[in-house]
Predict the structure.
Amino acid sequence: MRDSDRKLYLASLTDRLVKGQMGRRDFLRLAGKLGLGAGALGMGMHRGPFNFVPSAAAQEALQPSADILKWVADAGKPFAGTTLKLATESTPPSNALNSQLKKYFEEASGIKVEIEVLPLEQVLQKLTLDVASSLGTYDLYYIDQSWAASFSQDVFDPREQLQKTDLAMPNYNIDDFLPALVDGIAMYDGRMVGVPYDIPIFIMIYRKDIYDELGLKAPATMAELASNSKAIMDAKGPAMAGIAGQMKSGHYSLECEWTSMLWGHGGSIFNPDKKFVGNDEAGLEAMAYWTELKKSMPAGVDGWTWDGQGQAVAQGVAASMLSWGEFFPYFDDPSQTKISGLCEVAVPPAATSLRTKDQTAFGETPGVGHQGGSTLAVSKYSKSPDAAWVFMQWATCADTQSLITALGGGTGPTRTSVYDDPRVKANARVGAGTTRHLPVVRETIAKHMGSEPDLPEWAQISSDTIPVSLGKYFAGGYGSAKEAMDDIATQVDTILKG
Amino acid sequence: MNQSAFARTTRTIAGWAVVGLFFFPIYFWTSVAFRNAKDIFNWPPIFFDFQPTVRNFEQVFGISLGFDFGNQEAVTPGGGNFYMAPRLWDSIVVASLSTVLAIAVATLASYALSRMAFRGRHQFVSWVLSTRMMPPVAVAIPMFFIFKQFNLLDTYTGVILVHALMNLPLAVLLLKSFFDDIPAEIDESALLDGASRWTIFRRIVLPMAKGGIAATAVLCFIFSWTEFLFVLTLTQTGLKTVPVVSSTFVTSIGTAWGNMAALGAAAIVPAFIVILLVQRHLVRGLTMGSLKQ
């Protein structure tokens, strides 16, 4: 039996044991046939404070490849004793690396890795300070896609780093990263600003039980999204709303939702002349649609970021959301929510019409599946760039990325091969850390992904200018959507003129 | 004056209502720490009828408490991403030592300002006050560069120093007012009897100002315990205090409210103990100087 099949079979056994579909005796018998009897027995018999059969068994199956660790040991040897620092947002991949995987790298290489996990705004503050001081307090940068332009000159292009053959990981295969993500997250002005590290993306998440009860189907168009949401609101509201939004005034999440609506109605943020065109006919159509859709959302949605939006679905306050796919494993976790197994996923509704990339500027790519995500890159100011490069290759190679997806709660992979990895596929069932939504995530990336423009001023425009004005519009601060969008256009023009 | 039963009852009810008003947020926050995630955001809200769990505490402190409420799951081996016990210790060390340092320097400085006449004394007091007028963020960034130069970034020494410096102006001004309330004639009598300034300070004035020192120390401790910006800017992975790590419960897939509440509830305890220890002096200190003869 191949190693990957063996792991897949063991993961499947573990899953059945966790779900109570198999007794421990049968589990041990079958695990024993895989040559894991003694280990599994040990796990089952010793129940100290930190021992738990399922996680221990899962860890047996989910360990880094010996070949990869051998390369880490060889490549990392000259840098043993070095300490690397990385500041990152608290995302599933970073948390899986920090708490479960980096120990393997440290043991093999002798390089110590300190990962500082922070909210996104604080990561930006830390990186800005590091770049401004050129002190190299961090060796690796976690770069949100909206900052790519700002930090593009402060990190090494991984394609150039791969030229150092003595430090290049065999079969690292940079072409394995999903091309759409490389283009949407990592590329700026011909430079590759790190490699894609994680990919939250908008997909359709809906309560299958509610949809079935009301005879609805997953929305295939924006019009169906609105009509489905209204039908649920009419039948179940106000206790349960049709759809949850992320519409907190002044918060980046509001801008994310807006782009999805805008792109979904044939609009774009910029035209080829680099002028803001969110106030054109398509933009206003999107605003009218969104304003109407908001009537099918729960009260209080104006105060919610994606956090509140996710909670609304998790608590059964709303029956659907067009939002980040990485929430789905959380919904499926019976220890976290009351809706485990009740949600299904679908690709985002088709846009009424869609502008092409040529009809926009700054690399903006319209698509209802708003793409977030980040890259991982080695800082140019690092005192140990080679050691950081060794770590970065290990952290973003296919093997580690598969482990991150399996251990990190079903987060969306950025490499093609990871979607097909048996360890990842083994988790495609209802329950914590499910990966059953990943085929939809993959299809959304390939066919429905929308990418924000890349320009140095984008962080300010996306996190302040647009969400503050949109918040003001929904609070009644403008006479009309046209007035609001015209005001945003004026502000954006002023910012771009410097 | 005899009070009617009605007045007494009304007063008792009003008293309990006020206590309830202040106690309820603490109760609710603490109860969140004992809830499973799915029991936190119920609508209508649940205040008492939930299945308790210690899992949030187990995750935050990286230990297994061994309780079994029916659906107890094991903690992540070796502590997961929300393992924050060392950060509570960091907070205790930073708040305690920075308070000791601030009080040690401030008592000497404020005694001198209270008792000794020297040129520019009043201007000096104004200058001390003016250091509190600058927005902390304006100080934090230059401080980052200075600390990096002196290898103080991400160290206990650095954070203790900056918290002591942050609290010093307030401590000096408060303690000066407490020392001012102690009649200078006592010092003069002791001087006539041959006591040195140091003896007067240590043997006479300091014991008389115990209440004021306790009140000032509590304020310094609380300010350090809750300070966010300097710790965020001047630390990385070496140490962090509770307010800064509390923000790390905000993740890209939502906020871990249960874990945050567990750390928050646990973080109340040390501050509460400090206040209990100095409670006797605290009330006296806080009311010191409120009445003039």
About this structure: Chain A has three domains: 3-61, 66-199+373-425, 202-370+445-497. Residues 152 and 162 of chain A are 18 Å apart (CA to CA).
